[in-house]
């Protein structure tokens, strides 16, 4: 099977922003109101130094004045306090208005990615790296929150404040103040952008190495038993440490480049502030500026200094958030290999006759799996599929579930082509008990109820009894509330298989697939369940993929697959009489049974 397509890299920042904006614009009135509060907060913030200048000028003594002429500037003091409060009120109101926008965007994107991953083909999931992908989703959703926070709550307010300050300086002071401030801003931003862009590839490298290290860790923990079987704990630790070491080296390089960025930014700010204060001091000594003007200019620079000092950090965080988000949104770009047709209709199940019509199929172009497979499972009958490993038996069930589309030919249920019906209705009509059962890390009751969420406890018990597992469950200390562990590891293979059978019985589908459903059971358990399975399958269309031929001897029809082709078909007795491949397989299995006896 070919590897899954690699997640697209180097997605442009603008493409990432274009993907994000519609999620925010759903709450456009909240966004506009929040921006209005942002403007109000910055107007109040810029007004504080202006009022402070007026306060200082009113309190300043001219030559020849005495202290008696000083009058408490009550209006200026009240205005100063009101502006201070207004800044805080507008800022908090902005946060309040935008909180739901941010959280809803994160929630919507995470849910959409989750749904999209479930909609992708089995081919993608067979080749995915779970640990790395979950880390990409985690970082990406966190990046959405960071991007919104830093851009709308830091970058935009800073730019608004800069424009207001520059406008005031142009109107009230000599041009040099605006030139120095503007030049410093341009130099600061250009330096920050250039160095941060240079540093971005370090972040991408760190992301990739972090995902790889996490993938190794998750994969190792999932295969805990295999690690123990071969005593490879130290080997796994070395593999994990190798990934951590590579991440450490990338992180050190990133931190070193950060020092270069911070040093350059501090130098530009220090030069600008020094020049501004020099021009203001000259103005005061020459009498063109008052002491209040000096205080005003100094206050303006202090107000700009703090956000400017963090502008590099903020820009870097935005770039890092975009780098994190690019992998999240690239998951949404993954092509759905199997999708519903635009005109797809729900499957209408009558008798549930299944037909494979001259089906050819290959996972990859150079290796065909099925060749001209043609057969019909009449409604309410059981057809068994047998053959050596790799002959294509399980592929038939995957095609019937439409995990893949056939290359040529067609598969129909009651005459309806699977490609022309919705996948949801198709899978609702089919129940499967796979050979390798994986359970959720939850209770036994939850795992059985997964066949039909919302089923009552009594219905769950009925399904458990039919699968011959009820007595075992009630013998446990916690009964149906027993937690089965990761992938059901607390249960034996046979117990897991019986839970899977109960789950499928609870679903009550029109079509049943047993993919070597009793392969993990001992002979006694298998005999107990086989009788139940035959009773369950009596009124359903059933496809049984079997290894033990004794379990399908009474099937209405037996198909023998060999290298992707149907080489024999008929009843058990007819195939034995033919003396072909089926008869040889039967003789070998009977010989093994006799040897065991």
Task: Write up this protein.
The chain is α/β, with parallel strands linked by helices. It folds into 3 domains: 13-333, ABC transporter transmembrane region fold (Up-down Bundle); 353-429 and 512-529 and 537-597, P-loop containing nucleotide triphosphate hydrolases (Rossmann fold), CATH 3.40.50; 436-508, 3-Layer(aba) Sandwich (Rossmann fold), CATH 3.40.50. The protein has 18 helices and 10 strands. The protein has helices at 13-25, 28-59, 74-119, 122-127, 130-172, 175-222, 224-229, 233-286, 291-333, 393-400, 423-428, 444-449, 457-466, 470-474, 493-507, 523-537, 572-578, 581-596, and strands spanning 354-364, 367-377, 382-387, 408-413, 416-417, 430-433, 511-515, 541-545, 557-562, 565-570. A 6-stranded mixed β-sheet has the order 6-7-8-3-9-10, sandwiched between helices. A 4-stranded antiparallel β-sheet has the order 2-1-4-5, covered by helices on one side. A hairpin with a 2-residue loop joins β1 and β2 (367-377). α3 runs antiparallel to α5 (130-172). The longest helix is centred in the middle third of the chain and has 54 residues, at 233-286. 31% of the residues are buried.
């Amino acid at each position: 099977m070919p590897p899954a397509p690699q997640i697209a890299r180097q997605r442009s920042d603008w493409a990432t922003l274009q993907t994000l904006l519609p999620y925010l614009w759903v709450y456009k009135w909240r966004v506009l109101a929040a921006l209005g509060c942002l403007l109000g907060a910055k107007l109040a913030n810029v007004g504080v130094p202006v009022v402070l200048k007026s306060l200082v000028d009113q309190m300043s003594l001219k030559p020849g004045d005495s202290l008696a002429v000083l009058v408490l500037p009550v209006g200026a003091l009240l205005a100063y306090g009101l502006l201070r409060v207004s800044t805080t009120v507008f800022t908090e109101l902005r946060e309040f208005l935008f909180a739901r926008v941010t959280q809803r965007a994160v929630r919507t994107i995470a849910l959409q990615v989750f749904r999209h991953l479930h909609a992708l083909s089995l081919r993608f999931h067979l080749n995915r790296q779970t640990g790395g992908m979950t880390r990409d989703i985690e970082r990406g959703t966190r990046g959405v929150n960071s991007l919104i926070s830093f851009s709308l709550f830091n970058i935009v307010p800073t730019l608004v404040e800069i424009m207001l300050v520059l406008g005031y300086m142009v109107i009230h002071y000599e041009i040099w103040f605006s030139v120095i401030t503007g030049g410093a801003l341009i130099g600061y931003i250009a330096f920050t952008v250039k160095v941060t862009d240079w540093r971005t590839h370090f972040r991408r490298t760190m992301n990739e190495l972090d995902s790889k290290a996490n993938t190794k860790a998750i994969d190792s923990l999932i295969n805990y038993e295999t690690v123990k079987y071969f005593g490879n704990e130290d080997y796994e630790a070395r593999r994990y440490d190798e990934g951590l070491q590579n991440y450490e080296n990338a992180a050190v390089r990133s931190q070193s480049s950060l020092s270069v960025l911070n040093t350059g930014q501090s130098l530009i700010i220090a030069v600008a502030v020094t020049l501004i204060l020099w021009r203001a001091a000259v103005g005061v000594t020459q009498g063109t500026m008052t002491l209040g003007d000096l205080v005003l200019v100094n206050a303006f620079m202090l107000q700009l200094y703090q956000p400017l000092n963090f502008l590099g950090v903020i820009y870097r965080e935005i770039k890092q958030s975009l780098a994190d988000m690019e992998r999240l949104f690239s998951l949404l770009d993954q092509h759905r290999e199997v999708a519903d047709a635009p005109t797809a209709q729900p499957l209408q199940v009558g008798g549930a006759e299944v037909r494979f019509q001259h089906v050819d199929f290959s996972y990859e172009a150079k290796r065909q799996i099925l060749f001209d497979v043609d057969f019909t499972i009449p409604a309410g009958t059981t057809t068994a599929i047998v053959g050596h490993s790799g002959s294509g038996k399980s592929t038939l069930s995957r095609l019937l579930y439409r995990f893949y589309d056939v290359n040529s030919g067609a598969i129909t249920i009651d005459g309806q082509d699977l490609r022309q019906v919705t996948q949801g209705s198709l899978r609702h009509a089919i129940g499967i008990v796979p050979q390798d059962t994986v359970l959720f890390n939850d209770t036994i009751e939850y795992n059985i109820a997964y066949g039909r969420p919302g089923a009552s406890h009594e219905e769950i018990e009925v399904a458990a009894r039919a699968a011959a597992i009820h007595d075992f469950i009630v013998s446990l200390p916690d009964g149906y509330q027993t937690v089965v562990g990761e992938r059901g590891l607390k249960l034996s293979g046979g117990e897991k298989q019986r839970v899977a059978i109960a789950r499928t019985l609870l679903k009550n589908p029109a079509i049943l697939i047993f993919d070597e459903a009793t392969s993990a059971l001992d002979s006694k358990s298998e005999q107990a369940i086989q009788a139940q399975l035959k009773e369950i399958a009596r009124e359903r269309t059933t496809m049984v993929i079997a290894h033990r031929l004794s379990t399908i001897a009474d099937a209405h029809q037996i198909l023998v697959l060999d290298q992707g082709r149907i080489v024999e078909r008929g009843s058990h007795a007819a195939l034995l009489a033919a003396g072909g491949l089926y008869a040889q397989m039967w003789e070998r299995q009977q010989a093994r049974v006799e040897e065991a006896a």
